[in-house]
Specification:
The chain is an all-alpha fold. Among the domains are: about 40 residues, no CATH class; about 80 residues, no CATH class; about 45 residues. Helices cover about 65% and strands about 0% of the residues. The longest helix is centred in the first third of the chain and has 24 residues. It is flat and about 85 Å long. The chain starts with a helix and ends in a 31-residue tail after the last helix. GO terms for molecular function: protein dimerization activity. It comes from Cajanus cajan. InterPro entries: HATC_C_dom, RNaseH-like_sf. This is HAT C-terminal dimerisation domain-containing protein.
């Protein structure tokens, strides 16, 4: 992000270092000072060329991270495809894709789970009008089978889900309760620990200031404190008309275009407070 800001201020930085006022200053006259090396970097073309190349590699990956870190809509079913499209975007725009491909693939292999494959396979958005290669189909289908066997304890339910998995979205999705149950569990998985971290921070804040409280009292304080945050967030939301006008579903066709940066999801209006357990 800092590099992107520097690139955006390219002309301003060059104008500053080349200005008559800077040259007359003690920093401009000092050939061995702190500003001499930065000036040489800014006025050279090599630095800006390399900076643009780096941004072409990292911008698609940062957009994927922003998508994954969202906490307003479940996006587990889009991660697999988002990574693939990010790699395609880098390949088209960067001259050095081959140098980064191995690093990206190694990181993806390390972070990849069968849950990602199953989420992709069970997402109906990628089952129509999308061409699947044999390798992609085999990998996602194998991951789906493993997830089904983990989530469905009954052997009969496993068999029913596996038999219907290839026809579920195409024909009668609601008529296969075994696979429907698995799909709901898989596609509802979270991809970020943001909400957990908020809850942990509330516990940490209260325990540091009131560390002699009993657990039940502590739990009530955390509950109240977190609900206050949710209520403030609810009050800051836009009107219902604005929400309906700006509501936009996840569409990876535009995720890597400049005219459609990753806009945050807008939730429908609902009770902002947690139900007491």
């Amino acid at each position: 992000l800092q590099l992107q800001e520097i690139v955006q201020q390219k002309q301003g930085l060059r104008n500053m270092f080349n200005s008559e006022e800077f040259r007359r200053s003690k920093f401009g006259r000092d050939k061995n000072g702190l500003t001499f090396e930065p000036r040489q970097i800014v006025i050279s073309n090599g630095f800006w060329s390399k900076a643009n190349d780096i941004l072409k590699v990292f911008e698609p990956l940062v957009k994927v991270l922003r998508l994954v870190d969202g906490d307003e809509k479940p996006i587990m079913g889009f991660i697999y495809e988002a990574i693939d499209r990010a790699k395609q975007s880098i390949q088209k725009s960067s001259r050095y894709y081959s140098q980064y491909q191995e690093i990206i693939d190694k990181s993806w292999i390390f972070m990849h789970f069968d849950l990602h494959s199953a989420s992709y396979f069970l997402n109906p958005q990628f089952q129509y009008g999308v061409e699947h290669g044999s390798d992609l189909y085999r990998e996602t289908f194998e991951g789906t089978k493993k997830v089904i066997m983990k989530l469905e304890r009954s052997m009969d339910d496993q068999i029913k889900a596996l038999i219907s998995v290839t026809e579920w979205w195409l024909m009668f999705g609601s008529c296969f309760p075994e696979l429907q149950r698995v799909a709901i569990k898989v596609l509802s998985q979270t991809t970020s620990t943001t909400n957990c971290e908020r809850n942990w921070s509330k516990f940490s804040y209260i325990t540091k200031t009131r560390n002699r409280l009993k657990y039940r009292k502590l739990q009530k304080l955390v509950f109240t404190h977190y609900n206050m945050k949710l209520k403030m967030r609810h009050q800051m939301r836009k009107s219902e008309e604005e929400i309906e006008a700006s509501f936009n579903q996840i569409n990876l066709d535009y995720i890597f275009r400049e005219d459609d940066p990753l806009s945050p999801w807008i939730e429908e209006r609902e009770n902002p407070l947690l139900d007491r357990v």
